[in-house]
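Support request, please re-run this one:
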Amino acid sequence: MKSKHTALTRAIERLDPHQVGLSTSLLPKQIAFVAKDFPKNAKLPPHKKWNSVVICAMGGSALGADLLRYVYEDFLNVRVTIVQGYRVPAFADRNTLVVLCSYSGTIEEIISCFKDARSRKLSSFVVASGGELMRLARHYRMPRYAFSTEFNPSKQPRIGTGYTMTALYMLFREARVLKPGTPDLLAAARTIPPEQGKALIAAQRLRAHSCIIIGAEHLRGNAHIISNQLNESAKAFAPYFFLSELNHHLLEGLGSLRTARRHWTVIFLDSSSYAPRMRRRVTVTRHVFEKQGFKTLTVPFAGSRIAQCLAALSYGSWLSYYLAILGGIRPSQIPWVDYFKKEL
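Re-run finished. Output below.
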């Protein structure tokens, strides 16, 4: 056991010079920092009654928004739409709050959305650590929040979800997007359960496997997050699907993977809070995958819904990290994304 631990430590020292592991462990500090800093330094939009919120965000910068819209689905006063493209939707009007969120502030789609929103005189709020997006927001004196990235030394947006998620949550509270009595994310974040050991055990089992991530209800955003992090950090193909939607089509499409099934594991994000019929769907869907020759892994979460989402956020970050390390991969490097951006 000691030799395995030593080998893992040596692999981390060799493969993680940019401290992705340290950044992963700092999720609670990312949340706590924004909780304290946002009230002092955010330049908020004027108070009004919004009828919709549009969040423009891409890749890792969109993960926090996805988590929030699903876990708080029953507590939203207005429709929340996430846009991953170059333009703000046509339905946005003077009663729409447009949030432009880019961790680095350099993403061209979000800068394009900024210009589109400004040309249409839409109420906007910018969330970024800096970059061209924040420069434009300051130049035009737009409502904004610029956060420090001290607690994400890796500089990877997908590992800095605590920053963007908490900034959006604080904005939702200030803009009265959330109903009174909404469960408090900040309180839940003080006791995020340790997921590192559980994730390492799973990574040892999943090594050299592609994964299908399945989530339901409040954990749908986490299915997306884990897929993103497995893609980028572990360089693993990991599509995600939602229950109960997948029950209406995916189960008949598994035959095309007939010769590759031994290389796939289906990960179910399970919850003690799922509705009884949804819990039954998890059980039966897992059985269908197993009958067709797939390995499955059920990851259970308990506690309040927001506590489960934060635990799943931590779990997925560690899972992707350890899969990278065990596979001899540097989790910070994204060579194909970098190549694409250069060619573009």
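The mean pLDDT is 95. DSSP finds 13 helices and nine strands in the chain.
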